[in-house]
Amino acid sequence: METPFPPFEPNGPDDSARGPRLREIPFRLVFPNLITILAICAGLTGIRLAFENRYELAVAMVLLAAFLDGIDGRVARLMKATSKFGAQMDSLADIVNFGVAPALVVYVFALDQARSLGWIAALIYAIAAGLRLARFNVMAERENKASWQSEYFVGVPAPAGAMLVLLPVYLGFLGLATDRTFAYLSSVYTVAIAFLLISRLPVWSGKSEGNRLRRDLVLPMMLGVVLYVALLMSYTWEVMVFTVAAYLVSLPFGARRWRRKYGTLTIEEPGVGDDDIGRHI
């Protein structure tokens, strides 16, 4: 027969017998991770749509994944919800959305006609994106960061690389014949973008706090952004081709600006320890 009263515990209740108590987590800490998960889902869905020959939706999902992956960190900082768990999730999303998904989409659309060479090109790009992200994480974790890190990227950043490598797909949407010659040229282009990712080319980031816009240029710039978005909605693939071309043309100007300021063609970091392989890549 059970007693209606709890047993007497002279030293107080024994909480160890109840197991670990679940701690409630504020929703603001979870929200940025949900955005990251949605980005991964979008990137993987883009791969599925590509294999189903629904290429326009596939590219749209990859670009959406890149957008979501780009804002999750900013949302986390804005909501003061940054965490090591979120950083690891973001790294996983980066390699999927900026490396694997674009490589597979461009392979299914164009590179597969080049047979093994096309697959090798896709592999090279995906691996290069992973190396680029690993180098970025190593540099971001340094306690003493160089002054130029707030103004320049080392090589083309992975989000921009995902946009650039999809150029053959944009051209195919505009009616360019996707024959075997196109596949071979696309393979060469894909490998070239991969080398831009892992290169030590100085790429101007525009994030420096010293870059200020003149007051009289604020409204024209805002109107320019509105015009760009309106054109993107109406002439999506033409605008994407123009954006890729403009970005590639801007790379020599960023390198030229670096050379005038620092006197070298590439970003070199003397005094790096031999025990840190990420800093040598």
UniProtKB/TrEMBL annotation:
<keyword id="KW-1208">Phospholipid metabolism</keyword>
<dbReference type="Pfam" id="PF08009">
    <property type="entry name" value="CDP-OH_P_tran_2"/>
</dbReference>
<keyword id="KW-0444">Lipid biosynthesis</keyword>
<dbReference type="InterPro" id="IPR004533">
    <property type="entry name" value="CDP-diaglyc--ser_O-PTrfase"/>
</dbReference>
<feature type="transmembrane region" description="Helical">
    <location>
        <begin position="57"/>
        <end position="79"/>
    </location>
</feature>
<protein>
    <recommendedName>
        <fullName>CDP-diacylglycerol--serine O-phosphatidyltransferase</fullName>
        <ecNumber>2.7.8.8</ecNumber>
    </recommendedName>
</protein>
<dbReference type="GO" id="GO:0012505">
    <property type="term" value="C:endomembrane system"/>
</dbReference>
<keyword id="KW-0472">Membrane</keyword>
<feature type="transmembrane region" description="Helical">
    <location>
        <begin position="91"/>
        <end position="110"/>
    </location>
</feature>
<feature type="transmembrane region" description="Helical">
    <location>
        <begin position="217"/>
        <end position="233"/>
    </location>
</feature>
<dbReference type="InterPro" id="IPR000462">
    <property type="entry name" value="CDP-OH_P_trans"/>
</dbReference>
<keyword id="KW-0812">Transmembrane</keyword>
<dbReference type="GO" id="GO:0016020">
    <property type="term" value="C:membrane"/>
</dbReference>
<keyword id="KW-0443">Lipid metabolism</keyword>
<dbReference type="InterPro" id="IPR012616">
    <property type="entry name" value="CDP-OH_P_trans_C"/>
</dbReference>
<dbReference type="GO" id="GO:0008654">
    <property type="term" value="P:phospholipid biosynthetic process"/>
</dbReference>
<comment type="similarity">
    <text>Belongs to the CDP-alcohol phosphatidyltransferase class-I family.</text>
</comment>
<keyword id="KW-1133">Transmembrane helix</keyword>
<dbReference type="InterPro" id="IPR050324">
    <property type="entry name" value="CDP-alcohol_PTase-I"/>
</dbReference>
<feature type="transmembrane region" description="Helical">
    <location>
        <begin position="182"/>
        <end position="205"/>
    </location>
</feature>
<feature type="transmembrane region" description="Helical">
    <location>
        <begin position="154"/>
        <end position="176"/>
    </location>
</feature>
<dbReference type="Pfam" id="PF01066">
    <property type="entry name" value="CDP-OH_P_transf"/>
</dbReference>
<dbReference type="GO" id="GO:0003882">
    <property type="term" value="F:CDP-diacylglycerol-serine O-phosphatidyltransferase activity"/>
</dbReference>
<dbReference type="InterPro" id="IPR048254">
    <property type="entry name" value="CDP_ALCOHOL_P_TRANSF_CS"/>
</dbReference>
<feature type="domain" description="CDP-alcohol phosphatidyltransferase C-terminal">
    <location>
        <begin position="217"/>
        <end position="252"/>
    </location>
</feature>
<feature type="transmembrane region" description="Helical">
    <location>
        <begin position="116"/>
        <end position="134"/>
    </location>
</feature>
<keyword id="KW-0594">Phospholipid biosynthesis</keyword>
<dbReference type="InterPro" id="IPR043130">
    <property type="entry name" value="CDP-OH_PTrfase_TM_dom"/>
</dbReference>
<keyword id="KW-0808">Transferase</keyword>
<feature type="transmembrane region" description="Helical">
    <location>
        <begin position="29"/>
        <end position="51"/>
    </location>
</feature>
